[in-house]
Amino acid sequence: MLTTVSLPILATYVLIGMLAGMASGLFGLGGGIIIVPALLYLFILQQLPAPILMQMAVATSLATIVFTSLSSTYAHHRHGAVLWREVGWLVPGIILGGLLGAAIADHLPSDGLRIGFGIFELLVALQIWLDIKPAAHRELPGGGGMVFAGGGIGTLSTLLGIGGGTITIPFLLWCNIEIRHAIATSAACGLPIAVAGTAGMIYAGWDYQALPAGSTGYVYWPAAAAILVASVLTAPLGARLAHTLPVGVLKRVFAAVLAAVGLRMLV
After folding, report:
1. Which of 39, 151, 175, 224 could make a disulfide contact with 93, Cβ separation 3.0–4.6 Å?
2. Under a CB-based contact definition with an 8 Å cutoff, are residues 97 and 158 in contact?
3. What is the pLDDT of residues 256-265, one digit of tens each?
4. 120-124, 193-197, 240-244: least confidently modelled range
5. What is the domain partition of the chain in residue ranges?
6. Helix or strand run (H / E) with residue 41
7. Taking the model in full, what pTM does it have?
8. What's the rounded Cα separation, in Å, for the pair 76 and 127?
Protein backbone atom coordinates (compact mmCIF):
# COMPACT_ATOMS: atom_id res chain seq x y z
CA MET A 1 0.00 0.00 0.00
CA LEU A 2 1.48 3.34 -1.04
CA THR A 3 2.15 5.99 1.54
CA THR A 4 0.22 9.25 1.41
CA VAL A 5 2.30 11.99 -0.20
CA SER A 6 1.34 15.62 0.29
CA LEU A 7 0.39 17.61 -2.79
CA PRO A 8 3.38 20.03 -2.53
CA ILE A 9 5.82 17.10 -2.29
CA LEU A 10 4.16 15.33 -5.21
CA ALA A 11 4.29 18.53 -7.28
CA THR A 12 8.00 18.85 -6.46
CA TYR A 13 8.60 15.27 -7.62
CA VAL A 14 6.95 16.18 -10.92
CA LEU A 15 9.09 19.32 -11.20
CA ILE A 16 12.25 17.27 -10.58
CA GLY A 17 11.20 14.91 -13.37
CA MET A 18 10.52 17.79 -15.74
CA LEU A 19 13.94 19.33 -15.06
CA ALA A 20 15.69 15.97 -15.40
CA GLY A 21 13.94 15.29 -18.71
CA MET A 22 14.75 18.75 -20.07
CA ALA A 23 18.41 18.43 -19.07
CA SER A 24 18.57 15.01 -20.68
CA GLY A 25 17.17 16.36 -23.95
CA LEU A 26 19.20 19.58 -23.95
CA PHE A 27 22.59 18.33 -22.83
CA GLY A 28 22.50 14.56 -23.37
CA LEU A 29 22.96 13.94 -19.66
CA GLY A 30 21.14 11.30 -17.65
CA GLY A 31 18.67 12.59 -15.10
CA GLY A 32 20.40 11.02 -12.10
CA ILE A 33 22.71 13.96 -11.66
CA ILE A 34 19.63 16.13 -10.92
CA ILE A 35 17.35 13.52 -9.36
CA VAL A 36 19.68 12.23 -6.63
CA PRO A 37 20.48 15.53 -4.86
CA ALA A 38 16.90 16.79 -5.26
CA LEU A 39 15.51 13.60 -3.73
CA LEU A 40 17.97 13.79 -0.87
CA TYR A 41 16.60 17.18 0.20
CA LEU A 42 12.99 16.13 -0.30
CA PHE A 43 13.49 12.95 1.71
CA ILE A 44 14.94 15.08 4.51
CA LEU A 45 11.81 17.26 4.42
CA GLN A 46 9.63 14.15 4.48
CA GLN A 47 11.59 12.90 7.49
CA LEU A 48 12.40 9.56 5.89
CA PRO A 49 14.92 7.42 7.84
CA ALA A 50 18.12 9.45 8.14
CA PRO A 51 20.60 6.51 7.98
CA ILE A 52 19.40 5.52 4.49
CA LEU A 53 18.53 8.84 2.86
CA MET A 54 21.20 8.61 0.16
CA GLN A 55 20.60 4.91 -0.40
CA MET A 56 16.93 5.68 -1.10
CA ALA A 57 17.76 8.65 -3.34
CA VAL A 58 20.23 6.58 -5.39
CA ALA A 59 17.92 3.55 -5.67
CA THR A 60 14.89 5.65 -6.64
CA SER A 61 16.91 7.46 -9.30
CA LEU A 62 18.06 4.13 -10.76
CA ALA A 63 14.46 2.87 -10.87
CA THR A 64 13.43 5.82 -13.06
CA ILE A 65 16.37 5.20 -15.39
CA VAL A 66 15.18 1.65 -16.08
CA PHE A 67 12.22 3.03 -18.01
CA THR A 68 13.74 6.16 -19.57
CA SER A 69 16.70 4.18 -20.92
CA LEU A 70 14.32 1.88 -22.81
CA SER A 71 12.91 4.71 -24.93
CA SER A 72 16.33 6.29 -25.38
CA THR A 73 17.89 3.02 -26.52
CA TYR A 74 15.07 2.36 -28.97
CA ALA A 75 15.44 5.84 -30.49
CA HIS A 76 19.18 5.37 -31.02
CA HIS A 77 18.70 1.83 -32.35
CA ARG A 78 16.25 3.09 -34.98
CA HIS A 79 19.04 5.30 -36.32
CA GLY A 80 21.47 2.37 -36.37
CA ALA A 81 23.85 4.09 -33.97
CA VAL A 82 24.13 1.47 -31.19
CA LEU A 83 27.23 -0.74 -31.34
CA TRP A 84 25.54 -3.89 -30.05
CA ARG A 85 28.68 -6.06 -30.11
CA GLU A 86 30.41 -3.63 -27.77
CA VAL A 87 27.30 -3.47 -25.57
CA GLY A 88 27.37 -7.27 -25.37
CA TRP A 89 30.95 -7.22 -24.09
CA LEU A 90 30.26 -4.52 -21.52
CA VAL A 91 26.99 -5.93 -20.12
CA PRO A 92 28.37 -8.88 -18.07
CA GLY A 93 30.72 -6.54 -16.23
CA ILE A 94 27.99 -3.92 -15.87
CA ILE A 95 25.64 -6.42 -14.22
CA LEU A 96 28.30 -7.68 -11.81
CA GLY A 97 29.40 -4.11 -11.12
CA GLY A 98 25.82 -3.00 -10.51
CA LEU A 99 25.32 -5.71 -7.91
CA LEU A 100 28.69 -4.92 -6.33
CA GLY A 101 27.86 -1.20 -6.26
CA ALA A 102 24.57 -1.92 -4.49
CA ALA A 103 26.35 -4.05 -1.89
CA ILE A 104 28.93 -1.30 -1.29
CA ALA A 105 26.22 1.38 -1.06
CA ASP A 106 24.33 -0.72 1.48
CA HIS A 107 27.36 -0.78 3.79
CA LEU A 108 28.44 2.83 3.32
CA PRO A 109 27.07 5.50 5.66
CA SER A 110 24.60 7.85 3.99
CA ASP A 111 27.00 10.77 4.55
CA GLY A 112 29.77 8.88 2.76
CA LEU A 113 27.57 8.46 -0.30
CA ARG A 114 26.54 12.11 -0.09
CA ILE A 115 30.15 13.33 -0.06
CA GLY A 116 31.09 11.02 -2.93
CA PHE A 117 28.19 12.30 -5.00
CA GLY A 118 29.10 15.91 -4.19
CA ILE A 119 32.63 15.38 -5.51
CA PHE A 120 31.25 13.69 -8.63
CA GLU A 121 28.86 16.61 -9.19
CA LEU A 122 31.74 19.08 -9.04
CA LEU A 123 33.77 17.05 -11.54
CA VAL A 124 30.85 16.91 -13.98
CA ALA A 125 30.31 20.67 -13.58
CA LEU A 126 33.97 21.25 -14.44
CA GLN A 127 33.75 18.95 -17.46
CA ILE A 128 30.65 20.75 -18.78
CA TRP A 129 32.06 24.25 -18.13
CA LEU A 130 35.36 23.51 -19.89
CA ASP A 131 33.72 21.24 -22.50
CA ILE A 132 36.35 18.58 -21.86
CA LYS A 133 36.23 15.60 -24.19
CA PRO A 134 38.90 12.89 -24.02
CA ALA A 135 40.99 12.48 -27.15
CA ALA A 136 41.17 9.05 -28.75
CA HIS A 137 44.33 7.32 -27.51
CA ARG A 138 43.70 3.63 -28.18
CA GLU A 139 41.36 1.03 -29.59
CA LEU A 140 38.77 -0.83 -27.54
CA PRO A 141 40.30 -3.50 -25.30
CA GLY A 142 39.68 -7.21 -25.81
CA GLY A 143 36.82 -9.17 -24.27
CA GLY A 144 38.34 -9.36 -20.80
CA GLY A 145 39.20 -5.67 -20.80
CA MET A 146 35.66 -4.75 -21.87
CA VAL A 147 34.14 -6.87 -19.10
CA PHE A 148 36.50 -5.22 -16.61
CA ALA A 149 35.57 -1.75 -17.92
CA GLY A 150 31.88 -2.65 -17.66
CA GLY A 151 32.43 -3.68 -14.04
CA GLY A 152 33.88 -0.29 -13.19
CA ILE A 153 31.10 1.53 -15.05
CA GLY A 154 28.39 -0.53 -13.34
CA THR A 155 29.87 -0.14 -9.86
CA LEU A 156 30.33 3.62 -10.03
CA SER A 157 26.98 4.22 -11.75
CA THR A 158 25.07 2.26 -9.10
CA LEU A 159 26.88 4.01 -6.26
CA LEU A 160 25.96 7.37 -7.78
CA GLY A 161 22.43 6.49 -8.98
CA ILE A 162 23.15 7.47 -12.59
CA GLY A 163 22.72 5.83 -15.98
CA GLY A 164 26.45 5.89 -16.58
CA GLY A 165 26.64 8.25 -19.56
CA THR A 166 29.15 10.56 -17.87
CA ILE A 167 31.42 7.54 -17.42
CA THR A 168 30.66 5.36 -20.45
CA ILE A 169 30.84 8.09 -23.11
CA PRO A 170 34.33 9.34 -22.13
CA PHE A 171 35.57 5.73 -22.03
CA LEU A 172 34.26 5.03 -25.53
CA LEU A 173 35.62 8.32 -26.91
CA TRP A 174 39.00 7.52 -25.38
CA CYS A 175 38.85 4.18 -27.22
CA ASN A 176 38.37 5.90 -30.59
CA ILE A 177 34.59 5.43 -30.92
CA GLU A 178 32.87 8.21 -32.90
CA ILE A 179 30.74 10.51 -30.72
CA ARG A 180 27.36 9.53 -32.24
CA HIS A 181 28.03 5.84 -31.64
CA ALA A 182 29.47 6.55 -28.19
CA ILE A 183 26.30 8.35 -27.07
CA ALA A 184 24.01 5.67 -28.53
CA THR A 185 26.03 2.77 -27.09
CA SER A 186 26.15 4.47 -23.71
CA ALA A 187 22.36 4.85 -23.78
CA ALA A 188 22.00 1.11 -24.47
CA CYS A 189 24.33 0.37 -21.54
CA GLY A 190 22.12 2.51 -19.28
CA LEU A 191 19.41 -0.18 -19.19
CA PRO A 192 21.51 -3.02 -17.68
CA ILE A 193 23.12 -0.51 -15.32
CA ALA A 194 19.73 0.61 -14.05
CA VAL A 195 18.22 -2.90 -13.90
CA ALA A 196 21.17 -4.43 -12.05
CA GLY A 197 21.53 -1.41 -9.77
CA THR A 198 17.83 -1.25 -8.95
CA ALA A 199 17.62 -4.99 -8.30
CA GLY A 200 20.70 -4.81 -6.09
CA MET A 201 19.36 -1.85 -4.10
CA ILE A 202 15.98 -3.55 -3.63
CA TYR A 203 17.71 -6.67 -2.32
CA ALA A 204 20.13 -4.69 -0.13
CA GLY A 205 17.32 -2.75 1.55
CA TRP A 206 14.78 -5.56 1.71
CA ASP A 207 15.23 -6.33 5.41
CA TYR A 208 15.63 -2.74 6.61
CA GLN A 209 13.07 -2.38 9.38
CA ALA A 210 12.19 1.34 9.10
CA LEU A 211 11.37 1.60 5.39
CA PRO A 212 8.52 4.03 4.63
CA ALA A 213 5.31 2.72 3.08
CA GLY A 214 5.52 2.68 -0.69
CA SER A 215 9.07 1.32 -0.72
CA THR A 216 10.50 -1.88 -2.12
CA GLY A 217 13.91 -2.18 -0.58
CA TYR A 218 15.51 1.22 -0.96
CA VAL A 219 13.32 2.25 -3.94
CA TYR A 220 10.61 4.76 -3.00
CA TRP A 221 7.92 4.29 -5.66
CA PRO A 222 5.78 7.45 -5.15
CA ALA A 223 8.81 9.55 -6.10
CA ALA A 224 9.96 7.19 -8.86
CA ALA A 225 6.57 7.12 -10.59
CA ALA A 226 6.04 10.90 -10.55
CA ILE A 227 9.58 11.64 -11.75
CA LEU A 228 9.41 9.02 -14.48
CA VAL A 229 6.18 10.30 -16.04
CA ALA A 230 7.33 13.93 -16.00
CA SER A 231 10.81 13.21 -17.38
CA VAL A 232 9.50 11.09 -20.26
CA LEU A 233 7.17 13.93 -21.27
CA THR A 234 9.80 16.71 -21.17
CA ALA A 235 12.85 14.93 -22.65
CA PRO A 236 11.60 15.34 -26.27
CA LEU A 237 10.95 19.04 -25.60
CA GLY A 238 14.50 19.46 -24.34
CA ALA A 239 15.83 17.78 -27.48
CA ARG A 240 13.84 20.20 -29.68
CA LEU A 241 14.99 23.23 -27.68
CA ALA A 242 18.59 22.12 -28.13
CA HIS A 243 18.28 23.22 -31.77
CA THR A 244 16.88 26.69 -30.99
CA LEU A 245 18.39 27.85 -27.68
CA PRO A 246 21.99 29.00 -27.07
CA VAL A 247 23.06 25.64 -25.63
CA GLY A 248 26.63 26.87 -25.01
CA VAL A 249 25.37 29.55 -22.61
CA LEU A 250 22.88 27.16 -21.02
CA LYS A 251 25.64 24.63 -20.41
CA ARG A 252 27.64 27.23 -18.47
CA VAL A 253 24.60 28.08 -16.36
CA PHE A 254 23.86 24.40 -15.81
CA ALA A 255 27.50 23.75 -14.83
CA ALA A 256 27.35 26.57 -12.29
CA VAL A 257 24.15 25.13 -10.79
CA LEU A 258 25.72 21.65 -10.59
CA ALA A 259 28.79 23.10 -8.88
CA ALA A 260 26.61 24.87 -6.32
CA VAL A 261 24.66 21.66 -5.66
CA GLY A 262 27.91 19.67 -5.37
CA LEU A 263 29.33 22.13 -2.86
CA ARG A 264 26.10 22.10 -0.88
CA MET A 265 26.17 18.31 -0.70
CA LEU A 266 29.74 18.39 0.56
CA VAL A 267 28.81 20.92 3.26
Report:
1. 151
2. yes
3. 988 999 999 9
4. 240-244
5. 7-266
6. helix 32-45
7. 0.91
8. 24
Q: Using alpha carbons, list the distances in angstroms from residue 198 to 32, 61, 247.
A: 13, 9, 32
Q: Residue 2 — pLDDT band, cuts 50, 70, 90?
A: very low
Give the strand pairing for 215-216 and 219-220: antiparallel
- DSSP-derived 3-state class of residue 28: coil
Q: Is residue 4 scored above 70 in pLDDT?
A: no
CB atoms within 10 A of CB 249: 9
Radius of gyration of the CA atoms of the chain, in A: 17
Cβ–Cβ contacts within 10 Å for residue 70, how many? 15
**Whether 172 contacts 182, CB under 8 Å:** yes
Is the Cβ–Cβ distance between 128 and 254 less than 8 Å? yes
Amino acid at 110: S
**pLDDT tens by residue, 60-100:** 999 999 888 887 888 788 888 899 999 999 999 999 999 99
Tally the residues of the chain: 267
Separation CA 218–CA 21 (nearest Å):
23
Q: How many CB atoms are closer than 10 A to CB 135?
A: 7
